[in-house]
Amino acid sequence: MNDLSPAGTDAVLLDVWCELQCPDCRSALDDVRALRARYGDRLELRLRHFPMEKHKHSFAAAQAVEEALEQGKGWPYVEAVLERVEELDRRGESFLVEVARELGLDAEEFDTALIDGRHILIVDADQAEGKAIGVTGTPTYVIGGERLDGGTSQEGLRGRVEEIADRLLAERDEQGA
Question: Dihedral of the CA atoms 145, 51, 55, 146 (nearest 10)?
């Protein structure tokens, strides 16, 4: 699937519904980094794709992330593209291939993957699942069965995710004791 961090079997799952052309997702990067630093392997961070029509390069970017995952640098790729959202807006697919090259990935394979559409089914499945559970914008977080919408405001979301993660981890620790 599209796991971006290794996690143990006792990890709490945090789905992050994201779109790489979304300025709000770029703003959420600091929160996501802080969560990864705080919880390490106890939190399984899973990127879920939710490209939106208003961002014309978001579907290609989602496919590019899947190729980066296959090549072993999913999270660095996500961060590199999100940090330069405006450049993606202007340059589109050539920018996605350039970022792959900058990260030492096989840029020709990226280009081929974007042309042949080998990752379209993964992106389509994520998008369909997101719609089915009520995702309407990005970023949206799902943890412990609770959906938290970050598309309107990031304020307080990291604290809410931490609150839920701490509770779920405590429950698992109690069950394992």
Answer: 0
pLDDT digits over 50-91, tens only?
999 899 999 999 999 999 999 999 999 999 999 999 999 999
Question: Model-level pTM?
Answer: 0.87
In this structure, which long-range contacts are made by residues 58-61, counting pairs with CB atoms below 8 Å and at least 24 apart in sequence?
Answer: 58/19, 58/20, 58/21, 58/22, 59/123, 60/92, 60/93, 60/96, 60/114, 61/19, 61/20, 61/21, 61/88, 61/96
Q: Tell me how far apart the alpha carbons of residues 14 and 35 are, in angstroms, rounded to a whole number.
A: 10
pLDDT band per the 50, 70, 90 thresholds, residue 151: low
Q: What is the CA radius of gyration of the chain?
A: 16
- Cα(176)–Cα(77) distance, rounded to whole angstroms? 36
CA distance 5 to 14: 11
How far is residue 30 from each of residues 27, 34, 65, 71, 127, measured CA to CA in Å? 7, 6, 19, 24, 24
* Letter string b/e over residues 47-80, b meaning 16 or more CB atoms within 10 A of that residue's CB: bbbbbbeebebbbbbbbbbbbbbbbebbbbbbbb
